[in-house]
Amino acid sequence: xxxxxxxxxxxxxxxxxxxxxxxxxxxxxxxxxxxxxxxxxxxxxxxxxxxxxxxxxxxxxxxxxxxxxxxxxxxxxxxxxxxxxxxxxxxxxxxxxxxxxxxxxxxxxxxxxxxxxxxxxxxxxxxxxxxxxxxxxxxxxxxxxxxxxxxxxxxxxxxxxxx
Length: 163
What we know:
Layout: H1 12-33, H2 40-51, E1 55-56, H3 57-63, H4 68-80, E2 84-88, E3 96-100, H5 102-122, H6 128-145
Antiparallel strand pairs: 1-3, 2-3
Helix pairs in contact: 1-5, 2-4, 3-4
């Protein structure tokens, strides 16, 4: 790294922010091309809900490393779109359990191949081997810094994130 802190183009934080902008723009472009109104965070929430039907909203927030209040608004939008249904938990009346609707599951099945195919484009300019290395390093850095986040990733009890 450079010794000039004013050269933002060498700062990891700035570069990560720029790469995030690129990632979101590409995701939104791919969804728009399919006529789908879905954000990356909404996709992440739907993927977590799909893997864990009947999960409570707070656990979804933990799985995708999003704060609970904002995740509630994300779920509100997914409910409004008819992609997710929410109900009061039988185990804890304060909790809200969420599941994909049939339409939500069908949409997720439809866009999953598009999301997968679009991932290499986020790292345009890197070889396939460099992309694999980069992703491995991102995972390592993210895991190491997880507890420094304002919304750390939290696994479900008895499970690991990779499951």
